[in-house]
Amino acid sequence: MKLEIDSFSGFRIYPSKGKLFVRGDSKVFRFANSKNASLFLQRKNPRKIAWTQVYRRMHKKGITEEVAKKRSRRTVKHARGIVGADIATITAKRNQTAAVRQQARLAAITKAKTEKKEKESKKAKPAARASAPSGPKVSKQQMKGGKGGR
Questions:
Q1: Could you give the angle at the alpha carbon of 83 between the alpha carbons of 78 and 86, nearest 5°?
Q2: Cβ neighbours of 37 (radius 10 Å)
Q3: Which partner from 21, 84, 94, 138 sits 20 to 30 angstroms from 1, CA to CA?
Q4: What are the pLDDT digits (tens) for 86-139?
């Protein structure tokens, strides 16, 4: 006894039962009853109709318990050094407390500020000497060779 499968619902069709529909491109569709045939001809999507086998398969309905869930391997994390820092310094930094980190940050800020002040004070001394005028003032037009405001 050869059982056919409904093209729309996925139900079994027993011999001498159901309908056969052949489309213009010679593709054969079998339907268990007129309800399935009607829904197919209305171009309904069987994946969206809750009682069809396709819907049940898509939404994992009625799957037996014997199919165990596939076990996935846990990824093992390895700590490696980065260019410019070995693993020991990285782990030391990671294990630091927030208070120590804050203290180090403040120390770095104060150091940077003192260095900046020293740099500015060195710049200010030579600039003070160079700013003194040396000779008569000449306008831009006179330098270009213009009349110079006569």
A1: 60
A2: 20
A3: 21
A4: 888 888 888 888 888 889 899 999 999 999 999 888 888 765 555 555 666 766
